[in-house]
Amino acid sequence: MISRIKAGMLAWLVGAGSLVAHEFWFEPSSHFVVTGGTMRVALRCGMDFAGDPRPLDTTLVLAVRRYDARGTMDLMPRLGEPPTPEALALEAPVAGTVLLALDSAAKSLTLPGDRFTHYLQEEGLDGVIAARRAAGTSDEPGRERYRRCIKTLIRVGEEADRTLAVRTGQRLEIVPLVDPFALKVGDALGIEVTFDGQPLAGALVRAWHRGPGASPDSTASVTRHEVRTDAAGRAEVRLGKTGEWMLSLVHMVPVTDDPAHDWDSYWGNLTFALPTR
Fold it and tell me: 243: phi > 0 → left, psi -120 to 50 → alpha, else beta; which?
């Protein structure tokens, strides 16, 4: 099991006095669907690519969209009608790639200075650590406003298209440069990370893997490795195993419009699967 302590979503405490689990991702029932079939996609929150389902709640979700060969579809009208769905059931009438993108509403989190620094170290946010040190605020609480920018890829049928490379307009975005469904074990997936549409250099990207058939509630088969983006915001993730993959990163910028917060953070996430061949 992978062990790490991370700060996260205030609403989902994992114990009194502890830090909070904060990975947040799309979990399709499968990343492969037959043409004409139905895909079910849920949200999960937890640590180390293992967690619990979260309702698709309009108090949490600011926007959710579907992209495929037919264009773009706003899925927000499907949320918020009692009972709140724990998964979206979506038809797959055309072959190709389906991209789902979700933006969360902003939430607040305040951590003591030492815990905030540890969180920054875990996420590779060296620039923020240096800025706090230069300002003499390293020991002060970290007052953060955070948002989620998550995506997932699903292959419908056997045909490929370029939907996977659609720019969704999310503030923080992980964009695959090749089709991950066409890769095989040992291949590298090239990605580009952007913030406000511009390449994000030096970002720490975590690549999580869960083996075929493994439970999303357990970390027993989960492994991870890390890469950093280059000056062009690009990196390569070596896909060493078949099964489900999750890429995640955090980017943080100073708050300029709210005296109650010091930092805005954006959490990017992309899930997909490497098929068994």
Answer: left
